[in-house]
Amino acid sequence: MVLFHLKTFGCQMNVYDSSRIVGLLAEHNMEPTEDETNADIIILNTCYIREKASAKIFSELGRLNKLYLRLKGKSPVFAVIGCVAKAEGENIFKRAPFVSIVLSSQKYHLLPELLKKALAEKEIIAKENVDNKKGKKTKLSHLINTELSGLEKFACLPVTKNTEKIAFVQVQEGCDKFCTYCVVPNTRGREISRTEKDVLEEVNNLQKLGAVEINLLGQNVDCYNGLDENGEKSSLAKLIKKIAKFENVKRIRYTTSYPSEFSDEMIELHATEPKLMPLVYLPIQAGSNEVLHKMNRRYTKEQYLELASKLKNANPNIQISSDFIVGFPNETEEDFEQTLDIVRKVKFIQCYAFKYSPRPNTVAAKMDGQIDLKIKSDRLKRLQTELRKSQDAFNKSCIGKVMSVLFTDISKVDDGYIIGKNEYLQPVIVKADTKLVGTIQNIKIESASYANLKGKII
């Protein structure tokens, strides 16, 4: 049996890709191992969104290579896949010549055959190098495929054979928005959607295997327009309505939304479909219209606030989470104050906030007016303080309420306690029989902190 060690970096989309890769390689007698020192294959599934993403990958490759050099005799096949693979391409081989395979996210269905070829070549080279009396080493050839393509990878993936209670399903990939700070169109390609039939078959299989919560994934999930059974374009709302008909599916979530693509059909669905969770992840990035324009975000602050209001009017239980970037080129103090203003108005319950970092081959990286790191750090700290106020206030408002919690883990800290997530993805801790892990229970919240809620089963 060939052993592989798979390390995943970045977003939930990469986590999903890695789960499918594990199943794909299992079909070819390749088994995952947590022990990186005992692996025949090392796979890094990479992300290119955050600052110094490439540097992190090259650093990890260097660490692993040194580890195997110390072991003397163990020489695994190295594969770099995902967004850094697409962005860096041949440069990976130049900086890390021991890497055998570089493969984009759209091509990972080719991984088994490429790995088999690389493993066979390793054996031949090892023998040649032992037999070579002149001491001249035979070099490894490089296998690369980073061209973007369509949906054929999904047709090549095997049916999932096991799942957790919370399952993820990719329905859409790529992005046509071309935000000036973002590399996704270059690393994940243009927008494509899987057919309804393809998605529904995967969901049906997952719910039969025991999944009770389905998370639909897409770079711009609102843009889902896969063909239905009649060959006509569907929509995210229509797809969710069909998924909700599966009896074992109790919860449905989706991410990531794009504000100007969020449809009235989806707003109405949040008012009528009880299986659709009331947490809407709606990245805004900045509160200043001037900054949004420079980011090429295709909405205004006013339009965003109107959408938030429509959602909460449709369903008073809805809460909103978001993303923010501070210190975008030419962002003024007044621009930043508008970001703080929208935080106070919307009262986000969970958010990700980052300092702007230039990404290679993006428009924003070449803009004048790059902000000093000290200013960016100060603004991030102030923003996080404001966001924490909103999250703390919401957490405390949950005390005394009854919330639905899907329990997924046993507490590693408190004996006799189990942990789950409520409708809003807040961690909830309850003293209860561990047999309840995997079930959904109604919990009365008794206390709240910034990190979690605690309660009892009713």
Observed structural traits:
single chain, 458 residues, alpha/beta, Rossmann fold, pyruvate-formate lyase- activating enzyme, OB fold (Dihydrolipoamide Acetyltransferase, E2P), 3 domains, 6-stranded parallel sheet, 5-stranded mixed barrel, 14 helices, 36% helix, 22% strand, globular
The CATH superfamily of the largest domain appears as: tm_1862 like domain
Instruction: Estimate percent helicity.
Output: 25-40%
Content of β-strand: 15-25%
Q: What would the average pLDDT be, to the nearest integer?
A: 92
Largest sheet: 6 strands, parallel
Nearest-angstrom radius of gyration?
Answer: 24 Å
The CATH class of the largest domain:
Alpha Beta
Structural class: alpha/beta
